[in-house]
Write a structure and sequence with these properties.
By secondary structure, the protein is mainly alpha-helical. It is built from 6 helices and 4 strands. It has helices at 34-37, 54-57, 61-75, 77-110, 112-115, 125-170; strands at residues 19-21, 24-26, 118-120, 123-124. The chain has a two-stranded antiparallel ribbon with strand order 1-2. Strands 3-4 form a two-stranded antiparallel ribbon. Strand 3 (118-120) and strand 4 (123-124) form a beta hairpin. The radius of gyration is 26 Å and the shape is rod-shaped.
Length: 175
């Protein structure tokens, strides 16, 4: 549970409102997560938490319609294309790196004579393979960032922009 940082708690809704309340200045923060802040707190015997009731949060039909916008975006071909591009890189990269890592650990434990074989001077196969683990980690990170920048970021940004425009239009122009 997050600390309140001096903000007053009111009625378990998890939201503050503009104005004065018993001498304390409160505010309405759209990014305040009512569900996370009320985690583990009971709203009463057998009743739903106020954070889950749209009228208690002052959303009315807007909250339901906003969720429909996000579901519509999730079902769109553009979103599916971004997810497909992501999976096309991540799944093979993960499998390759995991096999390489497990192979290194298995070789180090089952074939110590192979790992102790000198390569150059006092540098042996185990040292080269261990440094190779670091090198492939950095290479994989660079490859992931490059792939995201070239293949997914623009499409994801357009989806985010479209989603914000659709939800902004539903809220009457307010963000």
């Amino acid at each position: 549970m997050q600390p309140s940082k001096g903000r007053p708690r009111r009625g378990g809704t998890g939201r503050e409102s503009s104005g004065e309340d018993a001498g304390h200045l409160t505010y309405d923060d759209p990014w305040y997560d009512a569900l996370a802040s009320g985690w583990g707190e009971s709203a009463g015997a057998g009743e739903a938490p106020a954070a889950l009731i749209p009228s208690a949060r002052g959303e009315g039909e807007t909250g339901v319609a906003a969720s429909e916008v996000y579901l519509e975006v999730q079902r769109s071909t553009a979103f599916q294309d971004v997810r497909r591009r992501y999976r096309r890189f991540v799944v093979p990269a993960f499998v390759t790196f995991f096999v390489w890592y497990v192979g290194y650990v298995v070789a180090a434990t089952t074939a110590p004579e192979l790992m102790a074989r000198p390569v150059a001077g006092s540098v042996n196969v185990a040292m080269v393979a261990g440094l190779g683990q670091f090198a492939t980690t950095f290479l994989l990170t660079w490859g992931y960032a490059r792939h995201a920048r070239l293949r997914r970021d623009r499409a994801a940004l357009e989806l985010r922009w479209d989603t914000q425009e659709l939800t902004r239009g539903m809220n009457g122009g307010a963000s």
